Amino acid sequence: MPHRRLPNKRPIQHQRVEAGGRTVSAEETHLEAPKNDLPQARLGWIMACIQTVIYGSFVGTFIVSPATMTRPIAPGMAVTVATVGGLLAILSTMILTGLYVLLANRLTAR
What we know:
Order of helices and strands: EEHHHH
Oligomer: single chain
Distance between the termini: 63 Å
Strand order of the largest sheet: 1-2
């Protein structure tokens, strides 16, 4: 099978773009990253780890001691420790999400 010859391709010429009152190449504009991405990402990972610990401890308690989780909160009540723990895990997710939005917006506003 004979080899097909590919057409010669010229290198891409980068255009100059006006950015913030100075002229920069289009290549340079793609290299600039926002300066506050790192603190927001770090904050997100910290809060994700906190939530993982909360949920992991909830599930781990089920694995280690199912009797504890199926026990009623008070004698004669139908509400179990697992019900309250599950609601607290969900509530902690909402609180951490709200806290993240509040703190991330403050970091962005700087």
